[in-house]
Amino acid sequence: MQWRSPSVAAWEGRGTYRTLGAFRTFTVDVASTGPETLEPLLVVHGFPSSSFDYHRVVDAMAEHRRVLLFDMIGYGLSAKPDRAYTIDLQADVAEAFVADTGVSTLALLTHDLGDTVGGELLARQAEGRWPVEITRRVITNGSIYIEMAHLSPGQLLLLSLPDERLPDTAGIDGPSMQASLAATFSAHSRAEDSDLAGEWELISHDQGHLLLPRTIRYIEERRRNQVRFTGAIESHPSPLAIVWGTDDPIAVRDMATRLHGVRPDASLTWLEDIGHYPMLEAPSAFLDAVGPVLA
How far is it, in rounded angstroms, from Cα 35 to Cα 181? Predict the structure, then answer.
């Protein structure tokens, strides 16, 4: 058993390891903490983090519903094979997780890379390939229009590298990764030190940080298949809510404005003075924005 910090150990303690699509996958299935009056909620996290992003808000989100979270393959506490990583792979695991829980009707909450995986799930559902009912969905800060993204120097560096595992001597360490994550927060908010340390702990778990040049290839896949992924986000008939941190330096606020222009029927909630990780930067504001549109 590897050492775990208290916050990561507590999160792991809430979860279950399942074999999904031949991969050991960390999942969290939170039962409703009150009367279960709402449909289950599937949460899909972003790059390069994990379901741990939601550890401060999941109990409040579960007040009247079951909440399902998982670490995508290559992320967090899930398996980290040295292989090519695709959106199809992550969507397959998401489907397998939902099937394993027995859920057939759900709401969908996505963030960052999770927006793209969610787009693939929506496309499959619309094509009749994913037999679930999606009742409503919330999309949060992610580069859904990749040509508008302000990619960070670190992201550009990773994309410039070959799609292969880094050597063990690669100079990615905890302080530099935590600083990179903190730089995506708003200047008006701050990360808890324990959260940043936990994020690094999970990124580096099983040497996952050495796979970053492989896992980041989703950006290239977004460029090739944006019509499919974002097209499904735009056109899927389920009710849509857009919740966006205004100070995101990568997935800039103009993306949310553009999506709202395509889907004027969607609600748009701005999280003022909040950056890329609203669920960590401002848990209360995040819950205030997400709660009503999922109720």
Answer: 37
